[in-house]
Amino acid sequence: MALIRVPQYAQFSKKKRKIYELAVQKLRLNLAQGFTYDQACDTLSDLDAEMRAFVRDDFLKILIAEEHFGAGLELTDLALFLNLSCEQIESAALSLLNDMVREADEHQRKERKRAH
Length: 116
What we know:
The protein has one domain. It is built from 5 helices and no strands. It has helices at 14-32, 37-42, 49-70, 75-82, 86-115. Helix 3 (49-70) crosses helix 5 (86-115) and helix 4 (75-82) crosses helix 5 (86-115).
């Protein structure tokens, strides 16, 4: 099975970064207006498929970081609010934690390299 390389926010051009930021703003607004997560993501039809998938996955991780890890909201409550399954939320939370471990490892490697 081939691995698909997902673009990282830090690798975006200035233009792509702006598109990403506007998409995240749009999702926040839609959620505040009572949209479910899927409904909010469906409004991103102006983005290409790769960017839409990235924003969808990344913003869910952002919400988990803010609402669960930051504010203490239970993952089950977040799933209810977003109208997503608990499995989807738990999978995204695990992906977020894996991303954090990879970033920490990369940072540690760079620090060790800089120290030598």
